[in-house]
Structures are given as structure tokens and as C-alpha cells.
Design a protein that fits this description.
5-stranded antiparallel β-sheet; 4-stranded antiparallel β-sheet; 4 helices; 9 strands
């Protein structure tokens, strides 16, 4: 997939105390997106535009073409979260000559509690401290396969623009994120 098209998902808490708090709503939206991304592997990439200014106000989904965004719209439109509190914007095209900043959105792994059973092993605590120091966004996710709840932390890093990005295929994971073995970046388009 080459990230040529995108759509913004505006997260609305329903106003006047109604609905879910923004981080919870963002997590609910990501759970729905994850289901679609898992069924349609490597077709969608996730971005968090403007996260530092307005956390959890928007999610952005990149796709190779407009038809993929139509498939996404069809897949999520019946879900109650998308009917009531998440509004899909109008699909847009990334400019062919885009020369602005690029960001990498990658999963930041923190070992589970079970992994840190040995008191002398402080990897979990170090990774959590680093995530807090970097103020990494995270989503609370409930795994349908294991039934466990976990925090999905996302590292956002500025990177150099990829050479000839218009011809470079990317392979996002099932959350739409970059992984070490298939690293990629996305254009940081204005909101």
C-alpha cells in the first residue's frame, strides 16, 4: 500500500458530559478499526494528527486508494461507536509533490506483568518510565483473543522524508502501525 489517500476520524464526546471521555472513545474507535485492519491486512495505516495540541481529537487513516477508504466506511458505518460519536471526514488525496514533515507511528512495546516476575528484572518499569517521560499516547485495548486488557503505546517520531514515497509500498501491522521489520513513515499533513 502506498499512502496516497486519507480520511480523518473526528472523535466527539457527545457534549455536555454525554458519551465517552476522549481517550476511551479513541480506544473504542481503534478497536473497531483494528477489526477492519486485521481483515484487510496492510491496506490501512494509522496516524494521530495534532496529538500534542488536541490529544485524542482525531485519528487519521491512510490507504492506497479511494476505494479502500470506501471499504473502510462501509465496514465501520454500522458500529454504534461510529454511528454516535465518531464522524468520518471526506476522503482526501495526499499531494503528489508533498514535501512537508513525515512521522513514524510505531508500537512501543512494554512487557506484560507476567514477563516481569523476577524482582531484579526492571525492564517493564524502565519501559513504562520511558513512555511516561516521552508522553507517549496510549490506547486501552481489550484483547478479544485472550480477554486481557493492555495499553497500546505509540511512539511518534519525526523522520526524514522517504525517497520517492509515491512508489514505495508500506506494510502496516493490524493496528495500522509501523513495525521494526517493516518501518515506514506517513506525511504529517495539516489538520
Amino acid at each position: 500500500m502506498i499512502p496516497r489517500h486519507y480520511v480523518d476520524l473526528n472523535l466527539q464526546n457527545g457534549g455536555r458530559g454525554a458519551g465517552l471521555p476522549p481517550p476511551v472513545l479513541a480506544g473504542a474507535a481503534l478497536r473497531v478499526l483494528h477489526g477492519v485492519f486485521k481483515q484487510q491486512p496492510s491496506r490501512y495505516a494509522l496516524a494521530l494528527p495534532g496529538f500534542t495540541e488536541a490529544p485524542f481529537a482525531k485519528l487519521r487513516v491512510f490507504a492506497g486508494d479511494r476505494d479502500d477508504l470506501d471499504v473502510l466506511q462501509e465496514a465501520v458505518s454500522g458500529h454504534h461507536v461510529f454511528q454516535n460519536q465518531v464522524q468520518l471526514g471526506y476522503p482526501r488525496k495526499v499531494g503528489q509533490n508533498y514535501e512537508g514533515p513525515w512521522l513514524r507511528y510505531a508500537r512501543y512495546r512494554i512487557p506484560s506483568r507476567k514477563a516481569g516476575r523476577h524482582p531484579e528484572d526492571g525492564l517493564r518499569q524502565r519501559r513504562m518510565l520511558q513512555a511516561d517521560e516521552r508522553r507517549l499516547p496510549y490506547f486501552i485495548i481489550n484483547s478479544q483473543s485472550t480477554g486481557q486488557q493492555f495499553g497500546l503505546y505509540i511512539a511518534i517520531d519525526s523522520v526524514e522524508p522517504p525517497a520517492e514515497w509515491q512508489n514505495r509500498d508500506i506494510e502496516p501491522d493490524s493496528y495500522g502501525l509501523s513495525v521494526a521489520s517493516r518501518a515506514f513513515s506517513l506525511p504529517d499533513l495539516p489538520i
